[in-house]
Each structure stands twice: as structure tokens, then as C-alpha cells.
Design a protein that fits this description.
Blueprint lengths: L15 E9 L5 H4 E10 L4 E5 L6 H9 L8 E6 L2 E2 L2 H7 E4 L11 H12 L4 H15 L18 H11 L7 E5 L7 H18 L2 E6 L4 H6 L2 E6 L2 E6 L1 H10 L10 H8 L14 H8 L13 H18 L1 H21 L6 H17 L5 H16 L5 H31 L5 H26 L5 H17 L15 H6 L3 H12 L1 H6 L1 E5 L2 E5 H7 L6 H32 L1
Parallel strand pairs: 3-8, 3-9, 6-7, 7-8
Antiparallel strand pairs: 1-2, 1-4, 4-5, 9-10, 11-12
């Protein structure tokens, strides 16, 4: 990989320091709660500082505190930026925090991923954001894979290139401080060395403050690191260069074997005694001062609500369009189901068979929308990360998500209704067909909003699928098809009104057997004459003609209600993550 192109030295440089900070896990047993104990360290500008230590030593926790991901109000001691207490909202604007897992959209290209991140985080025009992205692609050495999808099977990008994209996503706003959690994790030695070389060049040429965690760096990587913060059992055992660490070990009487990595030797021997003890600082005196900062923590956004919705809609539309198993499979499924059900119920005039057709149609339409659950769960991880860095508002995401599915689900609804409506032989008036299509579209939107709502709560696909399938079954049971409303126990009657099956099922019945023509239609004939007309059946079912449109409004209420609940759940999760 070619080294990044040289840039002008940065005017504003930032030094991060901690003074006697301690951190405990909230609500944990006291003997296991303390993760960091009286930690004092610093990261100067223009250098690469590595936090090193064994697993469970507190490396990621310390990095999260330095990044402001763990709010200073939850930490005792002082976190200083250029000698002043950290203001989290301001620090997030000048810093980039790259976590260990790569939360990227697999079907976007590196260029698209960086461009959307730039448009969301920069107060710039689209062309200015594109110029910044092209500059960053050259700096990251991604020009040769800029147009390849991130996870495109045999044509995807490598692990090292994927990691550089993750770093680039948090560098689009040209942060003065860059904090990375295990940037070399899962990479081969060559890719890992390339990543560290790139970071070293950024620090030295641009004056960035770069802090990273790393588990067991090789000798060539150690040569590129300016300072080591060695941490064990939540305490700093050494901060300084690898040379000063070796010198300290020798002074303590240790004999370092030839060709042995000094850092590995230090980690093997430090459990018995401290290698280097920093000057102690009184952390308690800073605690009250830092806690007050939480009241003034505000997130400043680069775009307006409308701007965020437009950018997120474009990104989500592109993702859905490229997810063939979600988009194309759904379209094919709608066509085949429409033709299949149409041929099964073709010209069947029996009223019980018609009701069975309506019920089965709703079962198919409501149950088939759970396929969007994996997409929502993947998006949730990215949403939490992006909103925690102030890229956009949660409300903008929920609105964009809802808007993008409108045309996709409309297409699916029409592909289903066009064959099935005419094959089954339902009423031939155009307004009745359009109403039937509208109800099918509303059902799909209801189910989509329902899945989106519960995806915000459940932790994984297995639990989400179980919860959604169970609730859908309950809705079907209490819809009034299997057991009439009058026979449902009073303590269960609320489920009848919450059922997503009830309102579209009634709408189908009224659309077919309502109106002047429907009321006169004979549904059951005996030698003595017509026994049941459409009007008699509608009245027997307890329906009124006015419900034909009131049920549409109720379904619309369900769609909006589940989206509002989705927003509340996601907002709470993202707010909790920021705090």
C-alpha cells in the first residue's frame, strides 16, 4: 500500500490526559465491579500511543473513556483535553472513534460508505463531500477497490481493506483525535503492519493524536509506536517508549533473553510487581466538576431534519434494491402467491370459501414480512454507532426507513392483487379493485411497521422471529374469524381490537358484500328462494358500511403507532449508549 499523501500540519492539536480515573461497572458485584483503578496517562499530539495489556485488563474501557463513549459523569477522576475538562459534545466533533467490529453496509462500496458518512457529518455540499471522500480514499490506499462492494462474495474487499473503510468512516470529518479499538484484530501480519504505517504517517505528518488498543503487536509494529501504555488489572504499569520500558526492566533486575519481544516479556513478568509507577493524583477532587458537564452535553448535527431524511432514504433505498433476497424474492413471491391463490379459489362463489380466501390472504401478507427483520437488526447496530457520534437524529432514521418501504411494498401489493383479484372473480367495479389493492398495501405497511418496532427491542433474529410469529398467531386467533367477538372472554377482548387481522378482514368483507350491489347479491340459494344476501351477511357479521373507510384509518393508525414506538425504543437505546 502506498503511503498517504502528505498534508499540511494541523493548526489545532489536542493532548488527552487522565488524572487518577477509576471506573466501576454499574450494578455489578463490588468484587468484580472495578475495571480501572486510579489510572493516570496521556496521549500527546503527533504520536501513536498504544494501550497494551492482557485480555480483560481494561484496554477497551480506557479507550472508551478517552473517546467520551463512556461519559465522564460516570467516571471518578479527571479527563482533560488540552488541560481543560472534556466537553463530550465538542470532543465528539473533533474526534473519531473506531470500534473493534466493522459496522458497515455490506452491499455498499467503500466510496459510497465514505460519501454517505461525509454527507451526514460534514456541513458541506454534495460536491464538497465527494472531494473530501476522494482525498480520503487516496490517503487510505483504497483507490483500487473504491467501486467494489464491501462484501460481494468473490468480488468483495479484503479484511485489511474493510478495516481501512471502517477507519475512513470516522475520518471523513478530518478529526484531530483518532481512537481505535484493536485496528489489527483478525488481520494477517502484512495487513496489520499496513494499518499501523498508515496511522503513523497521519500522526507525524498531520499532527493527529492517535490512540489505539492492541493485544500482541509484533516487533515491526512496535517500532512504529511512539508510546506504550501498559495496563494490567485495571492499573497502568508503564507509560513511555519501548526503549524506556526495556531500561526499566533492566533496572529492576530482569534479564531479557536475546530475540525476545520486550513487551511480551514485560507482560509475562508484570503480574508480580509494578514495572513503573506513575505519580499519583487525587481523582476525587475532579469528580464533582466533571459530573456537572453532563447537564450541558448537547449534540450538534450537520444537517437539518429534511436533509438527514433525504440522505438516509437514498442510502436505505440503495441497500434494499441491492438486497436481492429481500427485494426480488419478495416481488416473485407476490406474483406466484397471487397466481397460485387465484387458480385455487377461481370463481368459487361459496361464502365460506370466500372468507377462507380473505383469511389466507391476510395470513400470507402478514407473515411474509418478517423477512425484513435481519435487515433491521443489521441497521440497528450501525444506527447506534452513527447516532452516538452525532451523525443524525433517530427520528430522521425512522422516517427515512418508513418512506423507503412505501414504493417497494406498493409494488409487491399490486403484483399480488392484479392476478388474484380477477382470477378469484371478486366484484368487477374498478373502485372495488382499487380499494382491495389499498387494503393489501396497508396490510403490508402494518406488518412492516410491526417488524420494525420489535426489531428495536429484540437482541437477535431467533428471538425476534419467535416473538413476531407468536404475536401474529395471537392476532389471527382473536381476529373474529375463528371465534366471534361475542364469544371472546372479556379479559381477552383487548386482543380483538389490537389484532392486525381484524380490520383488513372486515374491510375485505365490506368491499365484497357492501354497497347497493353487494347487499342485493344472493349468497345462499334454496328452492324456496334466496336465504342469505350480502346485506344480511354483513349485518349478521356486525359490520356497518361506514367501517369500510374507518378501518383504513385504523390501519393507518397502527402503521404510525408502531413507527412511533420504534422511534421511542431506538431513541432510548441510542440515548443510553451515548450516556
Amino acid at each position: 500500500m502506498d503511503p498517504p499523501s502528505p498534508m499540511k500540519p494541523r493548526k489545532n492539536r489536542y493532548r488527552i490526559e487522565t488524572k487518577s480515573i477509576s471506573y466501576c461497572v454499574p450494578n455489578a458485584p463490588s468484587r468484580q465491579a472495578a475495571i480501572l483503578k486510579n489510572v493516570t496517562c496521556n496521549a500527546p499530539p503527533g504520536q501513536v500511543v498504544a494501550i497494551v495489556g492482557p485480555s480483560g485488563a481494561g484496554k477497551t474501557t480506557l479507550l472508551s473513556i478517552l473517546a467520551g463513549a463512556i461519559h465522564p459523569c460516570n467516571v471518578s477522576g479527571a479527563i482533560l483535553v488540552n488541560g481543560s475538562p472534556m466537553e463530550v459534545s465538542r470532543f465528539r466533533r473533533i474526534s473519531g472513534h473506531v470500534t473493534q467490529d466493522d459496522a458497515l453496509f455490506p452491499l455498499l462500496t467503500p466510496e459510497e460508505s465514505l460519501l454517505y458518512s461525509a454527507r451526514l457529518r460534514l456541513k458541506a455540499t454534495k460536491s464538497e463531500a465527494a472531494n473530501r471522500v476522494h482525498e480520503l480514499i487516496d490517503e487510505l490506499g483504497l483507490s483500487h477497490v473504491a467501486g467494489s462492494t464491501i462484501s460481494g462474495g468473490n468480488y468483495g474487499i479484503s479484511g485489511g481493506e474493510r478495516r481501512r473503510v471502517s477507519i475512513g468512516v470516522d475520518m471523513v470529518h478530518d478529526p484531530a483525535v483518532l481512537l481505535l479499538d484493536e485496528p489489527t484484530s483478525g488481520l494477517d501480519s502484512v495487513s496489520a503492519l499496513q494499518i499501523i504505517k498508515m496511522l503513523k504517517c497521519m500522526a507525524s505528518s498531520q499532527g493527529k493524536t492517535i490512540v489505539l488498543t492492541i493485544h500482541q503487536p509484533g516487533y515491526r509494529i512496535l517500532e512504529l509506536i511512539d508510546q506504550i501504555i501498559l495496563i494490567c488489572d485495571g492499573m497502568v504499569r508503564h507509560q513511555g517508549s519501548i526503549v524506556s520500558m526495556e531500561s526499566r526492566l533492566v533496572k529492576l533486575g530482569h534479564v531479557i533473553p536475546t530475540h525476545v519481544n520486550v513487551l511480551e516479556f514485560a507482560m509475562d513478568t508484570m503480574s508480580g510487581s509494578k514495572i513503573f509507577e506513575l505519580e499519583e493524583n487525587v481523582g476525587k477532587k475532579h469528580e464533582t466538576q466533571i459530573s456537572r458537564q453532563a447537564d450541558h452535553d448537547q449534540v450538534l448535527y450537520a444537517n437539518s431534519h429534511v436533509g438527514e431524511v433525504l440522505i438516509l432514504s437514498e442510502r436505505f433505498f440503495k441497500n434494499v434494491l441491492r438486497t436481492r433476497q429481500l427485494f426480488m424474492a419478495r416481488m416473485v413471491q407476490s406474483i406466484l402467491a397471487g397466481i397460485g391463490l387465484g387458480t385455487i379459489f377461481m370463481n368459487v362463489m361459496n361464502i365460506q370459501a370466500r372468507l377462507g380466501f380473505f383469511a389466507f390472504s391476510l395470513t400470507f401478507l402478514l407473515s411474509s414480512t418478517t423477512e425484513g427483520l435481519p435487515v433491521y437488526l443489521q441497521e440497528k447496530r450501525i444506527l447506534q454507532r452513527e447516532t452516538s457520534r452525532g451523525a443524525y437524529r433517530v427520528s430522521s432514521y425512522v422516517i427515512a426507513n418508513a418512506l423507503v418501504f412505501l414504493p417497494f411494498l406498493l409494488a409487491g401489493a399490486l403484483l399480488y392483487t392484479v392476478p388474484v383479484y380477477w382470477l378469484v372473480g371478486l366484484r368487477t367495479e374498478l373502485d372495488r379493485f382499487l380499494y382491495f389493492s389499498l387494503v393489501v398495501w396497508m396490510v403490508m405497511l402494518m406488518a412492516n411497521s410491526f417488524v420494525a418496532c420489535f426489531s428495536a427491542i429484540v437482541p437477535n433474529f431467533i428471538m425476534g422471529n419467535s416473538v413476531i410469529a407468536g404475536l401474529m398467531g395471537s392476532f389471527f386467533l382473536f381476529s373474529g374469524y375463528f371465534i366471534s367477538k361475542d364469544n371472546i372472554p372479556k379479559y381477552w377482548i383487548f386482543m380483538h381490537y389490537l389484532s392486525l387481522f381484524k380490520y383488513p378482514f372486515e374491510a375485505f368483507v365490506l368491499n365484497e358484500y357492501g354497497g347497493e350491489k353487494g347487499r342485493r347479491e344472493c349468497l345462499e340459494m334454496e328452492p324456496s328462494g334466496c336465504v342469505i344476501t350480502g346485506g344480511m351477511f354483513v349485518k349478521q357479521y356486525g359490520l356497518r358500511e361506514t367501517q369500510r373507510w374507518s378501518n383504513i384509518w385504523v390501519m393507518l393508525g397502527f402503521i404510525v403507532g408502531y413507527r412511533v414506538l420504534c422511534f421511542i425504543f431506538l431513541w432510548f437505546k441510542c440515548k443510553k449508549m451515548r450516556r
